[in-house]
Design a protein that fits this description.
single chain; 7 helices; mainly alpha; 5% strand; two-stranded antiparallel ribbon; 2 domains; 2 strands
Length: 151
C-alpha cells in the first residue's frame, strides 16, 4: 500500500481548492505528498481551468520571480552524477532500505530522540543497509553536524 486512503473530506478539499492553490500547497494543507495529491487529482479527473493553467504557465521559467537562469538544475545534475559514481555503497544502501520500507520489511518508527512521526532512515554503516536509526529531519541533521565536528 502506498499510503493511507484519501477521505471524502480530502477529495472535497482538493476539488474546492484546485483553482486557488497549487498541488504543492494542497499537499501541505492535507499533510500529504505532492505526488499523492497530484495523482489523486488526476484519478478523480479534477482539472484546472484553461485560465488558471495559462496563469501558471505565464509564471514559469524566465517569467518566474525566483528564476536563476536555469543554472541550479544543471549544477545539481552534475553533482548527482558525480556523487553516484563516488559513493555507490550509499546509493545501494539507500535503495535497499527504500525497497524494504515499500515492501513492509522495514517499518518506520518515530524519531528516537523526540518521537516525531516524520522520520529519515540514518545509516551508521552502509554495509548494513537495513540497520538504520530513525531520526526526524532536525535530529538527523544535528547528528551529522556532531559527526563532522568529531572527525
Amino acid at each position: 500500500m502506498k499510503g493511507k486512503p484519501y477521505t471524502q473530506e480530502e477529495d472535497d478539499f482538493i476539488r474546492d481548492h484546485i483553482e486557488t492553490m497549487t498541488d504543492h500547497e494542497i499537499a501541505k494543507a492535507l499533510d500529504r505528498t505532492y505526488e499523492g495529491v497530484h495523482g489523486r487529482r488526476k484519478k478523480l479527473h479534477y482539472h484546472r481551468s484553461a485560465e488558471t493553467l495559462a496563469q501558471h504557465r505565464a509564471r514559469s521559467g524566465e517569467n518566474n520571480p525566483a528564476w536563476k537562469g536555469g543554472i541550479y538544475s544543471k549544477k545539481r545534475a552534475a553533482y548527482n552524477k558525480r556523487r553516484k559514481k563516488q559513493e555507490p555503497e550509499k546509493r545501494i544502501a539507500r535503495e535497499l532500505a527504500r525497497t524494504a520500507i515499500k515492501r513492509g520489511k522495514l517499518l518506520r518508527v518515530p524519531c528516537e530522540v523526540c518521537g516525531n512521526a516524520k522520520v529519515d532512515a540514518h545509516h551508521e554503516d552502509y554495509s548494513k543497509p537495513l540497520d538504520v536509526r530513525w531520526l526526524c529531519r532536525k535530529h538527523h541533521l544535528q547528528h551529522h553536524r556532531q559527526m563532522r565536528k568529531a572527525s
